[in-house]
Amino acid sequence: NAGVTQTPKFQVLKTGQSMTLQCAQDMNHEYMSWYRQDPGMGLRLIHYSVGAGITDQGEVPNGYNVSRSTTEDFPLRLLSAAPSQTSVYFCASSYSGGTGSTEAFFGQGTRLTVV
Amino acid sequence: RKEVEQDPGPFNVPEGATVAFNCTYSNSASQSFFWYRQDCRKEPKLLMSVYSSGNEDGRFTAQLNRASQYISLLIRDSKLSDSATYLCVVISTDSWGKLQFGAGTQVVVTP
User: Which of A51, A55, B5, B80 is the most buried (most CB within 10 A)?
Assistant: First the structure.
C-alpha cells in the first residue's frame, strides 16, 4: 500500500520562484489537506478539500493555491516563494467514519528552504 | 488564544516511570479527539483515538474531560522508544477535513 505519496522530499527555491508540491493518495479518502510545521508551532492548516472540486482555506492560506480535480491528487502551489515559507510541509488524507472515528494518514513531508 | 494548547515540555522521564500530560481545546463544538506521535519531525502517526469513556491501548491511557475541555495521555512503564513528540488533534464533526493540532508535548525517556 502506497498510502500518501508526497514529492519532493527536499527542495530549495530562490525568492520569487514558483513550484508545486505533489500529493497523491490511493485510499479513496474524501478529505485531503496541507499543513506546514514550523519549530514550536505544531502543524498549521494551509488548505483542505472535502472532495474532488471542493477546496477551502485553512489557517495560513496566503501565498498558496490548491486544486483538486481528482479524488487522488491534491497539489499545493507556491505562487512566488518567500523566505517565510521555509518550513516542513505535510500532506494528509483522511476519512469520516460516521461514528466519530477517523484517521489521518500523512505523507513523509517536504522540507522546503527559500533563500 | 490557540484552539488547541499543549505543554511543550520536555518531560524527562526515567525508564519505567509513568508520565502524563494534558491538552486543552477551546471549541466546545469539538467532537473527536486523537493523540498522534511524531518522531524527529517525521510524519505524524496515529497513536490512539480518545473516547468519552476513556480508553487504554497497552501502556497508554487516554481520557476526555468535556466539562473542562481537555484530553490527557498517560504512559505507564515508559520505554526508551516512547521518546517522541505527542500531538493532540481535535476535529469538529462539521469539519472532518480540518484537523486542529496542538504544538506537541516532547517526552524524553532516559535510561
Answer: A55
Residues 6+ apart with CB under 8 A from A103: A94, A95, B34, B46
pLDDT in tens, B49-93: 898 888 999 999 999 999 999 999 999 999 999 999 999 999 887
* SS3 annotation, B58-76: CCEEEEEECCCCEEEEEEC
Number of residues assigned to chain A: 115
Measured between beta carbons, the chain B residues lying within 8 angstroms of A40 are: 8, 103
**pLDDT per residue over A24-79, tens digit each?**
999 999 999 999 999 877 899 999 999 999 999 999 999 999 999 999 999 999 99
Q: Say if residues A36 and A89 touch (Cβ distance below 8 Å).
A: yes
Tell me the pairing of strands A110-114 and B11-14.
unpaired
CA distance A69 to B33: 30
Length of chain B: 111
> Residue A1's pLDDT is what?
61
Partner A contacted by B83 (CB < 8 A): no
Residues of A near B (CB-CB distance < 8 A)? Answer: 30-33, 35, 37, 40-45, 48-50, 56, 58, 88, 90, 92, 94-96, 100-104, 106-109
Contacts of A18 (CB under 8 A, 6+ apart): A77, A78, A79, A80, A81
> Which residues are CB-contacts of B56 (< 8 A; sequence separation ≥ 6)?
B62
